[in-house]
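Student: I would love a firmer grasp of how sequence relates to backbone shape in proteins. Thank you; the sequence and its tokens follow:
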Amino acid sequence: MGVPETRDKIVTTLALLLAYRAGFHIPIPGTSPDFLRNAADSAASTVFGVMNAFSGGAIGQTAIFSLGIMPYISASIIFSVLGKVSPAIEAIQKEGAAGQKKINQWTRLSTVPICLIQALFVWFGVFSQTENILSPNAPGGIAMALVVIVSLTAGALFVMWLGELITEHGIGNGASLIIMGGIISSMPSSLLTIFRSGQDFYGTVLTLVSIWVTIVVVVVYMQKGERRIPIQYARLTRGRRVYGGQKHFLPLKVNMAGVMPIIFASALFMIPGVIFKLLGMNYLGNVFTTTDGFIYVTFYLLMVFWFCFFWNNLMFQPTEIANNLREHGSFIPGIRPGAKTADYIKGSLKRITLAGAAFLALIAVVPNFVTANIPELRGSMAYFLGGTSVLIVVGVAMDMVDKLNSQLTMHNYEGFMKTGGGAAWAKRGEKK
């Protein structure tokens, strides 16, 4: 905290996160602010869990920030995928800062229709299906629907703006920090509920800490795990000087897809579950929403595996990497440049993806069975221990630590240049 610039960034980040959390105390006009707070715990343990985390932990609350950062995240994912399948958007992304600025503007504009669609989803899936959610004096029909949809859209856009402010003036990625803040914010109320229930509070907390630390250690180990493919630069001789000949590595992370496969799988399960319940097919709806059922777990695991391979093959192009290596005079020792290099990288990617998919499948399913057998750890506490929440919290924390270290390293380097060896060398040059 001795670096003023870093201290200001930390204070700015905390202040903006505080403003974000303050929005959850502003209810939507005409709604009952206390009605769905108890329903948030039940929503966290169902298929709405991922949606609850990405909305900041408030999908079950009647607040203007109920959608949270989720629409902006959805728009960002859409443009990330389009950048790999659309040559026009890919060309814009390769334009550098100007192209990235244009993509960011398109992402913001795309957030508006996504907000409207998700607000409609919340209105028809939650408000119109729940009794006593509206206050007695609230208008009904289309007027109330417009109030809810406009309020949710405005709140989501304001949260998007706060996230961009954190990214620009704070530390770390604003959208990721907002998601992390929404997950962690459920901890105090969950612990208070356990304390008031009259159960073994200290034993429950000890169990909670043990489970969470174990999951965090496994997640960090897998997040840091990578397969390093050696890269050799060709040696060139120009006169008496020899250029190149250096060795580097091409790192392939074990969990390259991150939390994206879990998000896609949960989203696909959430849509048919809601549709079946709206049509009155409660049995089929329960199949797609019961997280510890055999059918749900089986299809969920298969979808996580499939989306892992889909996302990695989409975002990581072995042929393009092999061509870049050949153009820069680099090669993998023992592998011929070109198609052979692409096949080698593709084979390594498949093996790494298989290990990463198995890790994601286990980390997404196993905590549900563990917490299901412990009554004290159900509700929002169960979802906090879930693999998706831990992946998000650990990933954001590791990213924030890396950025803090880079800022401190840059500050120390500047101090060295001003007061250390750099200044001494400059003065020595002036004397000469």
